[in-house]
Specification:
The protein has about 250 residues and is α+β, with helices and mostly antiparallel strands. The chain folds into two domains: about 100 residues; about 80 residues, no CATH class. It contains four helices and ten strands, in the order αβββαβββββαβαβ. Strands 1, 2, 3, 4 and 5 form a five-stranded mixed β-sheet that branches. Strand 9, helix 4 and strand 10 form a beta-alpha-beta unit. The relative contact order is 0.15.
Length: about 250
């Protein structure tokens, strides 16, 4: 055989190769696979009954193996309503993930697969969101299941905003920075989906104890919107503290 000749053909035993790959795959340790979620009763964010973080108990987590197959929106919603203390007959919507603009149909299949903790289609950063059309007061009074081994501290992503009246800056009830009382902030997970200007306005009005119909949302303090439209009683200038590509345009 000359140096330019191709190497002799070698027959590959594909069955043996597949058995070897399967054996290696099975030998790899597979940890628990989790589904992360947040729950709302209408517009109100709920503390989860399966919390995993000390500083943000709205985020819940359950093992995927606790959800009976097939993993459809109908099945997942039924399981979450039971775990979170709502009636099986309560109407609900499931956003997969939280950032989706529209809820999924009941028959939609959701991929919950993963091969290590917190890995899968629905991660901590992109949990699904269950919006239950029921009053929070009707939720059952079951004990919250917590474990010192599960509770951790997470980095909370906030929407920052400034609150004004026509006369000037107001003190925000969510003020957190000394010397800057008009600057408030909201945990993004506390805003029910879909994330629109309207749902943001309702959430700010709720925490600031204001009438949402009297709020006007402006993207920043240099916006010209107030000059082109009737100025309402309260002005809120919103500064996003993180990139939110799914947020609808102003």
């Amino acid at each position: 055989m000359t140096p330019t000749d191709p190497p002799p053909y070698q027959e590959i035993d594909e069955a043996a190769q597949n058995r070897s790959l399967s054996s290696k795959t099975l030998e790899q340790p597979i940890g628990p696979v989790y589904m992360h979620y947040v729950v709302f009763a209408e517009d109100e964010p709920m503390e989860s009954r399966r919390p995993i973080y000390d500083n943000d108990r709205s985020m819940g987590r359950i093992l995927v193996k606790s959800v009976p197959p097939p993993h459809t929106v109908r099945t997942i919603s039924r399981v979450l309503r039971r775990i979170e203390g709502f009636n099986a007959s309560d109407a609900s919507q499931l956003f997969v993930p939280l950032s989706n603009r529209v809820p999924e149909e009941d028959s939609t299949y959701v991929n919950l697969s993963g091969h290590s903790p917190s890995v899968g289609l629905l991660s901590v950063g992109q949990p699904l969101a269950l919006v239950v059309h029921s009053e929070a007061s009707l939720r059952s009074k079951e004990r919250v299941e917590t474990s010192s081994e599960l509770l951790e501290t997470c980095n909370i992503n906030y929407v920052h905003y400034r609150l004004y009246s026509e006369e000037g800056a107001l003190v925000s009830k969510r003020s957190f920075k000394e010397g800057d009382p008009s600057l408030g902030r909201l945990n993004i997970l506390s805003i029910r989906p879909p994330h629109t200007v309207w749902t943001l306005r309702k959430r700010i009005a709720k925490v600031e104890d204001l009438d949402p119909s009297g709020l006007q949302i402006l993207a920043d303090i240099f916006s010209e919107t107030a000059g082109r439209h009737r100025v309402k009683r309260w002005l809120v200038y919103v500064v996003l503290s993180m990139r939110l590509p799914h947020w609808r345009e102003w």
